[in-house]
Design brief:
2 copies of one chain form a homodimer. Chain A is of the alpha+beta class and 205 residues long. Chain A has a single domain, classed as NADH Oxidase (3-Layer(aba) Sandwich), CATH 3.40.109.10. In chain A, 40% of the residues lie in helices and 15% in strands. Chains A, B: It holds the Pfam family Nitroreductase. Chains A, B: This is 5,6-dimethylbenzimidazole synthase.
Chain lengths: 205, 205
């Protein structure tokens, strides 16, 4: 297989995983994923990402509580039919995943000397998003699943994890070996939404 | 080589390219990159990314003008020593690159039915950022270079490209075959900044 075919295979099997087997990932492998994530592009070479392992049962419980509240609020706002469909989805692997990793972005990094972010300051956070995506792909290439939980109140998570004030909360990742492997998104399999992007053509100017 | 080693090779050689050879990339290959980008993850399966080919010489000139102004403003704000270092950098391949691609994000997509973006609405834009990163990696795997230009006023670009009002401007990409290949960032080679992230350890809670 060519490099591009292998890469596409990684893209195809990189899913948002919500069902995990209980056995942990080896510490050396997790360290490797952290290293590989650091190869992501960043604006001005600012490398603003910060990865936090959340191991304390108390803090994990706090995050589960925040998820449950955000989830209940989201459900309450939906119309009845939509709410029924929403209620059928499993949206996070927070109970099963052996590893919890919170990702933050330094708000105004000194590293990078401000290059490239004067007119588009969001590029700093976007660099962190690409580091998360890099981590996710590196995990997928090793048969490890990642689920990105975004149904959370960022400020509540920051408090529960006592993160530095200069860090912005970006993502909460559930990490572990998936209990099933799929090359299609779970939201598509459960009938929530269909992918349409592959049929879209270039806009031209 | 294992899949993860091949993937890391793609990460290592995926650089922000600012020096391009003039020959174009085959249309079929560009279409392939667009297809592969659509495999990116997206919040609620919303696929909010929109890719625009900018071929009109007039519009390309307009974007170059916006870059030149943003660049001059950035230079004027820097202290003398810093300004001299900044002035030595080549920050965009807008003159040489055979292809210009602007990327936008639909602000409030219907697709995805709002799932996962209630408390963290930025996850929509972040999905588009991951599609850009996917495009970039797919290009790198084919020996094609991408340079992300962010020294631009988003509103001025939107006007120059007459993009729909509901789309947010995210990135302007220069695309083509690189005139040199490097496994280190240009900003590091030119002494602007050093990478530090690979030495960073987990934060623990």
């Amino acid at each position: 297989m060519t490099t591009s075919a292998i890469l596409e295979d990684v893209f195809r099997w990189r899913r948002d995983v919500r069902h995990f087997r209980p056995e942990p990932v080896a510490e050396a492998t997790l360290d490797e994923l952290l290293q590989v994530a650091s190869m992501a592009p960043s604006v001005g070479l600012s490398e603003p990402w910060r990865f936090m392992r959340v191991d304390s049962p108390t803090r994990r419980d706090a995050v589960r509580g925040i998820f449950a509240r955000s989830q209940a609020d989201a459900l309450a706002e939906r119309e009845s039919e939509d709410a029924a469909a929403y209620a059928r989805l499993k949206l996070a692997g927070l109970d099963d995943a052996p590893h919890h990793i919170a990702v933050f972005s330094v708000e105004d990094p000194i590293q990078g000397r401000g290059l490239g972010r004067r007119t588009m300051p969001e590029t700093t956070v976007w660099s962190t998003v690409m580091a998360i995506h890099t981590f996710w792909l590196a995990a997928a290439a090793r048969g490890i699943g990642v689920g990105w939980v975004s149904i959370l109140e960022p400020e509540a998570v920051r408090q529960a994890l006592e993160s530095p004030a200069s860090w912005r909360f970006i993502a909460y990742l559930c990490v572990g070996y998936p209990s099933e492997r799929h090359d299609t998104p779970e939201l598509e399999r459960l009938g929530w939404e269909q992918r349409q992007s592959a049929c879209r053509e270039w806009v031209r100017r």
